[in-house]
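Q: Could you fold this chain for me?
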Amino acid sequence: MLTKRQNLIETIKGGNPDRFVNQYEFMELVLESRIGKSVRPGQKIVNDWGVTFSWPEGQLGGFPVHDKEHIVLKDITEWRKYVKAPPVPTSDEAWAPAIEHANKIDRNEVFVAAFVAPGLFEMTHHLMSMEEALMAFYEEPESMHELIDYLAEYELAYAKEMINRIHPDCIFHHDDWGSQISSFLSPEMFEEFFVPAYKKIYGFYKANGVELIVHHSDTYGVNLVPSMIEVGIDIWQGVMTTNNTPELIKEYGSQITFMGEIDSGKVDFPEWTPEIVAEHVEKACKSCGKLYFIPNLTQGLNFSSFPGVYEETSAAIDRMSKEMF
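A: Sure. Below is the predicted structure, expressed as structure tokens.
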């Protein structure tokens, strides 16, 4: 029987896996690598960039507050006035929890996965709101290029410290690039603004011991797949059924692996049942096949919003492995 790590490699290389890669099992997430404030249910916080986040009780997640009082970037043409990157953590104390966690992981069994969030696109709209960010790509492209370069340089500085501290062999990187039915930017605009920055960032990771780039975007992204391949993404996590994943696998499978196809919104809700989960898992596994595909809830971490859904999904994937392998 292959290890979880070996089985992942066989799956993404078009080899001979002996079972489905079961959700996130191939990597252990070092969530401590995300140093800084993050909002939790029922909280309202200001993060290190000055962005105010609110997560109301009963909601499934938090989001930036963008009224006039709280918005950070008030004028994209004066972004240097408003946007101040926080210091990259360099103390032993700051990195101690991440180092301790990484050192306990069996690298022969799984990948040590550093967690990086938010991504470059998300940072632009966290700072200035989604509406203002999307308009700025058209109205002030020069300033947006400058801001994205600034954000990318910060991530590179952070990545250098992180690599030196925990030596990850996998990066799990968040950046949502669309809605369920469309990308936020056209492929041409995405190519102009984000491909150069991500090629630099992901290239740096790959040049410094990182074997696997897993990028989370639980969105529509068919039109961005060529760019994903160009920037060096190995696994697109969060691929929704609106992307026609079986067709993506046929066209691009030898270049990138697709992780998802079990839409969280369809199975992860208060009235979920094992039967509903089993139905969606079976459809995903049978339609997408054994190679270049990892069945997974589209949500961007290894848990579910409602208790039991993630575990039941894993059990259903195990049953499909026994049936199909």
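A (continued): Residues 4-30+71-324 form a domain with the TIM Barrel fold (CATH 3.20.20.210).
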